[in-house]
Specification:
Layout (H helix, E strand, L loop, with lengths): L2 E4 L9 H10 L4 E7 L11 H8 L5 E7 L7 H7 L3 E5 L6 H10 L3 E6 L17 E5 L14 H11 L4 E5 L4 H10 L3 E4 L1 H4 L4 H8 L1
Helix pairs in contact: 2-3
The structure holds D-xylitol-5-phosphate and zinc ion.
Length: about 210
């Protein structure tokens, strides 16, 4: 079964509670929360207080994607805010092993994300210690970008290495690119503009599944 994780970045920020209602009714099980610091990526999104507020009104699994330079410094704060899964970038400056341990110590599932230009082999040493691998299919930093088909071979290679791991793909996902990612071995699809931009979020989510 494919899990759909709509990315809040594409929601209407003036009415987040209603936006969450819309995707929850539409069948989403997870919520993807993109945190950007303006340093690791050239953009700033939202942070801990927003997640804390949403936690009070939502039972979705909070799938937090940190695009920040020093993830290790904020692990406890994201746990306190209500994150269920905390994903950091392998290219950030925190030590991956220490960061994974800290995420587990704080009671969350640990994820690692890799940018399109990072060799997949770089993540191999960590595959047996994480619960989620997030493969970027665009350069991180902005929603609404075009899907990079090169990620499909990367997903295939990673699925071969980690048959039972949750593998998620993020960036430019719609019904067509999502189907290609599922075929390549991804079992979680992150979709921002395709889901939140749709009139009928339920139909968009169903088309991804
Ligand atoms: C990009 C973010 C994505 C983004 C996806 O840096 O990590 O999660 O919101 O947006 P779409 O689905 O519109 O490409
Ligand atoms: Zn993301």
């Amino acid at each position: 079964m494919t899990i759909i994780s709509p990315s809040l970045l594409a929601a209407n920020f003036a009415c987040l509670d209603r936006e969450l209602e819309r995707i929850t009714q539409g069948g989403a099980q997870w919520l993807h929360l993109d945190v950007m610091d303006g340093i690791f990526v050239p953009n700033i999104s939202f942070g801990i207080p927003v997640i804390q507020s949403l936690r009070k009104v939502s039972a979705l699994t909070f799938d937090v994607h940190l695009m920040i330079q020093q993830p290790l410094c904020y692990v406890q704060a994201f746990a306190d805010a209500g994150a269920d899964i905390l994903t950091f970038h392998l290219e950030s400056s925190s030590d991956p092993s220490v960061t994974i341990e800290e995420i587990h110590r704080c009671g969350m599932k640990a994820g690692i994300s890799i940018k399109p230009g990072t060799p997949v082999e770089a993540v191999y040493p960590y595959l047996d210690r994480i619960e989620l691998l997030l493969v970027m299919s665009v350069e991180p930093g902005f929603g609404g970008q075009k899907f990079m088909p090169e990620c499909l071979d990367r997903i295939r290679a990673l699925r071969g290495k980690a048959p039972a791991l949750d593998i998620s793909v993020d960036g430019g996902i719609n019904a067509q690119t999502g189907a290609a990612c599922r075929e390549a071995g991804a079992n979680i699809l992150v979709a921002g503009s395709y889901v939140f931009g749709a009139q009928d979020a339920a139909a968009a989510i169903a088309s991804l599944q």
